Q: What sequence folds into this?
C-alpha cells in the first residue's frame, strides 16, 4: 500500500535511568571512600562478594544494589501506517508513551530503534505558546512564534489579520504579552499555530488549557484543517473531542501499541484496559442504621460503557439494622458539568427499602436511556420520608462513560450538544 | 514529495536543506535577543551606544591624557587599545552567549523542531551587531583624532570573517559541551578571563619572544587582533605571517570539529537538556 503519508516500523525509544546506590546503614568514611573508588574502577563480574568488606557479624546493614543504569523503553515495537487525509487520535493512559511518540514524529528526539518515514511537511503543537517571550508585544510574538513553528515572515504577514481576528486581541497587539490574561495568551498562541498550513499536523493535548469557549473554537479550527484534506494526529484524553474529530485511533499502553483501527474500536480497547470498577460503588460501614453498601450499574457493556438507547439498570444494596416504615431512596444521573440529567425516585412508585431488618436490594430500570456522550456519575439520597432524617448522600459515585453509536459516521456527538438525546422522527415532507 | 526517514543515527542529508528552510530563524532569534534587551527602558536602543562610547572616553582621557601611556609611534593610545578591544569584545561576548544559548532556549529545544545550529549561531550574530555598533564608535574616534587608515583597511573584512569564524567554532564547541556537562558554565568565564591576558589586547604582540611566537599564535584571536591592528593602524603594527596562518588554521579546525561534535550530540540534546 503505497499511499501512506506516515509509516512507522518497529519504533523504539529508550531512556537510560540512573540509580543512585542505596546507602548502607552504617556509613563509615572508609566504606564511603572505598565505594567511590570502586565505582570509578571498571566493573568486574564477580564484584558482588568483594563489595562488602568485613562487617561485624549480626550488624544490621541494608546493602541493596539497584542496577546502576536501567533501560526504560518509553516506546517499543510501535508500528502503524497513516494515510493522507486521515484524522487519527492517539489514546492512552498517562505515561503510555503518547508524548514520546509525538516527539519522535516531530523530529525532536531520535528513535533508538526502528524507523519513521514521513512524506510531507510536519508542524507540531506540543505546547501552546512555544517561544513566546513575555517582554515582547503580541505583534512581535506572532512573528517570533510563527518563525519558530516554521512559517516564513511573508507567510505570517499575509495571515496576520486572520490570526489576530481568530485570537480576538486586536486592542492588545502592542502590549507586552506578560500583561495578557491567561485566556488571551492561550488564544493568541493557538491562533498562530492554527494558521500553519502543513501537510501533517500533530497536536498534543493543547486543548486541555483554556475555557470551554476556547476549546470549542480550537476543535472547530481543527475540523476545518482536517476537512481541508490534511492529515492530523491528535492526542487527547477527552473521548468526546476524539469522537468528534477522528476517524481512526491508535491506543498506546506502556509504550506498546494496544490497538489500531476505527476510532470506536480503539476507544473500546482503551476503556477495556482502564478501571474495572467503573459503574460500581462499595461502601465502608459507617455505623448508621441504614447505609448504602453497594451500587452497581449492571447494564454497562464489558468495557464499562453505556450505549445510548440501551436500557440502564442500577442495583442498590442497602443495609438495614432495623426496619423502616417508609425508607426513601432517590438517585440522580449527572453529566460532565455535574448537571443532573435524570432523577429517579423510588418512593413515587411506592417502592421503599427497609421493610424488615437485614439487606434491602432495590433495582431501577430505564428501558431506553438516551444519555448524551461523555462521562456521567450517580448521586444517591438515602433518607426517611421528607421532613425526617437523611441517612446518606453519595455524590459522584459510579463513573461511567456514555457512547453514542447510532449517529452518522462523519458527524459525531459532543457533550455540549444536549443533556439527553431524543427519539424523534425526521422526514422529507 | 520528499520523504524523510528518521532512524537511529540517520537523517543527515536533509539537515542542510533544513538549515536553508529555516534561514529566517537566524534573523528572528537574533532580533528577539536584541529587542528584549531594551524593552521597558527609557533610553532604549541608545544603551547600545553608551557602553562603547564610555569605554572610548575612558581610554582617551584616562589612559591617553592623564596616564600619558606611551604608544607605538604616532598612534594615540586610546585608538591602539580600542582597535584591539573591538574584536576581543566580539569574541568574548559571542563565546559567553553562545555557550549558554542552548540551555537558555531549552523550552524550544524540547518542544519544536528546527536545526539546533541556529541557536548558537544567532547569539554570535547578536554579538556581531554589538560589534558593528562599536565599530561605528571607532570610526568616530578616528575622526576625532584625524587618524585615518590607509589601503590596508580593505583587508579588514577578511579579519572580521576570521573573528566571526573563531567565535562560531569555539562557540559551537562550548555550546554542545555545556548541554551535557554543565561544568562549562563555570569554565567559560574563566576561559574568557584568561584569554584576555594571553591575547594582545593590553599589549602588543611584538613583545612576545620569537621562540614562543608560534605557540602563542595558536590562540585564534592573536591573528584576528594583530590583523585588526595591521589593517587599521597604517601598518604600525607588524603582521607576523606564520602566526596569521596558524590562527586561520586553528579557526578552520575549530569550526570543522565543532560542527562535527555538535551534529553528533544534537540528537541527544532534547533528551539531556
A:
Amino acid at each position: 500500500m503505497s499511499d501512506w503519508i506516515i509509516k512507522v516500523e518497529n519504533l523504539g525509544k529508550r531512556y537510560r535511568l540512573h540509580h543512585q546506590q542505596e546507602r548502607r546503614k552504617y556509613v563509615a568514611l572508609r566504606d564511603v571512600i572505598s565505594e567511590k573508588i570502586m565505582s570509578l574502577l571498571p566493573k568486574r563480574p564477580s564484584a558482588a562478594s568483594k563489595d562488602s568488606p568485613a562487617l561485624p557479624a549480626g550488624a544490621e546493614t541494608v546493602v541493596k544494589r539497584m542496577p546502576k543504569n536501567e533501560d526504560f523503553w518509553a516506546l517499543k515495537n510501535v508500528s502503524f501506517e497513516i494515510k493522507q487525509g486521515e484524522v487519527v487520535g492517539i489514546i492512552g493512559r498517562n505515561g503510555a508513551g503518547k508524548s514520546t511518540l509525538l516527539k519522535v514524529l516531530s523530529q525532536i528526539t531520535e528513535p533508538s530503534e526502528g524507523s519513521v518515514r514521513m512524506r510531507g511537511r510536519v508542524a507540531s503543537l506540543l505546547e501552546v505558546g512555544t517561544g513566546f517571550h513575555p517582554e515582547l508585544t503580541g505583534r512581535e510574538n506572532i512573528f517570533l512564534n510563527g518563525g519558530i513553528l516554521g512559517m516564513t515572515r511573508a507567510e505570517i504577514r499575509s495571515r496576520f489579520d486572520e490570526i489576530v481576528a481568530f485570537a480576538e486581541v486586536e486592542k492588545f497587539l502592542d502590549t507586552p504579552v506578560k500583561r495578557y490574561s491567561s485566556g488571551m495568551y492561550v488564544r493568541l498562541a493557538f491562533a498562530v499555530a492554527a494558521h500553519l498550513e502543513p501537510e501533517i499536523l500533530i497536536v498534543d493535548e493543547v486543548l486541555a488549557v483554556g475555557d470551554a469557549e476556547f476549546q470549542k473554537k480550537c476543535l472547530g479550527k481543527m475540523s476545518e484543517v482536517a476537512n481541508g484534506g490534511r492529515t492530523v494526529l491528535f492526542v487527547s484524553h477527552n473521548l468526546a473531542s476524539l469522537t468528534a474529530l477522528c476517524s481512526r485511533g491508535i491506543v498506546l499502553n506502556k509504550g506498546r501499541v494496544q490497538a489500531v483501527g476505527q476510532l470506536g474500536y480503539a476507544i473500546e480497547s482503551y476503556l477495556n484496559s482502564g478501571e474495572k470498577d467503573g459503574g460500581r460503588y462499595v461502601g465502608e460501614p459507617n455505623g448508621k442504621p441504614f447505609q448504602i453498601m453497594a451500587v452497581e450499574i449492571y447494564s454497562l457493556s464489558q468495557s464499562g460503557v453505556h450505549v445510548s438507547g440501551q436500557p440502564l439498570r442500577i442495583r442498590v444494596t442497602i443495609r438495614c439494622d432495623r426496619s423502616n416504615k417508609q425508607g426513601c431512596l432517590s438517585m440522580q444521573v449527572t453529566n460532565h458539568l455535574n448537571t443532573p440529567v435524570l432523577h429517579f425516585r423510588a418512593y413515587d412508585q411506592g417502592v421503599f427499602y427497609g421493610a424488615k431488618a437485614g439487606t434491602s436490594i432495590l433495582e431501577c430500570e430505564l428501558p431506553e436511556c438516551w444519555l448524551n456522550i461523555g462521562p456521567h456519575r450517580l448521586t444517591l439520597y438515602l433518607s426517611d420520608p421528607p421532613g425526617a432524617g437523611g441517612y446518606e448522600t453519595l455524590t459522584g459515585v459510579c463513573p461511567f462513560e456514555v457512547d453514542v453509536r447510532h449517529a452518522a459516521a462523519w458527524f459525531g456527538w459532543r457533550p455540549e450538544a444536549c443533556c439527553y438525546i431524543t427519539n424523534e422522527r425526521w422526514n422529507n415532507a | 514529495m520528499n520523504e524523510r526517514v528518521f532512524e537511529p543515527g540517520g537523517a543527515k542529508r536533509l539537515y542542510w536543506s533544513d538549515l536553508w528552510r529555516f534561514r529566517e530563524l537566524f534573523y528572528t532569534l537574533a532580533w528577539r535577543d536584541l529587542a528584549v534587551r531594551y524593552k521597558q527602558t527609557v533610553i532604549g536602543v541608545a544603551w547600545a551606544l553608551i557602553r562603547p562610547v564610555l569605554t572610548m572616553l575612558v581610554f582617551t582621557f584616562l589612559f591617553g591624557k592623564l596616564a600619558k601611556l606611551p604608544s607605538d609611534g604616532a598612534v594615540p593610545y586610546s585608538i591602539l587599545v580600542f582597535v584591539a578591544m573591538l574584536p576581543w569584545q566580539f569574541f568574548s561576548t559571542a563565546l559567553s552567549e553562545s555557550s549558554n544559548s542552548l540551555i537558555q532556549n531549552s523550552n524550544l529545544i524540547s518542544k519544536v523542531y528546527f536545526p539546533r545550529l541556529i541557536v548558537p549561531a544567532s547569539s554570535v550574530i547578536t554579538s556581531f551587531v554589538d560589534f558593528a555598533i562599536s565599530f561605528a564608535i571607532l570610526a568616530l574616534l578616528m575622526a576625532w583624532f584625524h587618524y585615518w587608515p590607509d589601503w590596508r583597511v580593505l583587508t579588514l573584512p577578511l579579519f572580521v570573517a576570521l573573528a566571526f569564524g573563531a567565535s562560531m567554532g569555539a562557540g559551537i564547541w562550548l555550546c554542545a559541551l555545556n548541554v551535557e556537562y554543565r561544568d562549562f558554565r563555570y569554565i567559560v568565564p574563566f576561559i574568557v578571563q584568561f584569554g584576555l591576558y594571553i591575547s594582545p589586547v593590553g599589549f602588543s604582540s611584538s613583545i612576545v619572544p620569537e621562540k614562543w611566537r608560534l605557540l602563542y599564535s595558536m590562540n585564534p584571536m592573536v591573528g584576528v587582533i594583530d590583523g585588526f591592528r595591521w589593517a587599521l593602524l597604517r601598518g604600525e603594527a607588524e603582521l607576523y605571517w606564520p602566526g596569521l596562518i596558524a590562527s586561520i588554521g586553528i579557526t578552520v579546525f575549530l569550526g570543522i570539529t565543532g560542527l562535527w561534535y555538535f551534529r553528533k550530540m544534537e540528537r541527544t540534546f532534547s533528551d539531556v537538556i
Q: What stands out?
A: Chain B has a mean pLDDT of 83. Chain B touches chain A through 33 residues (CB under 8 Å). The first strand of chain B starts at residue 3 and ends at 6.
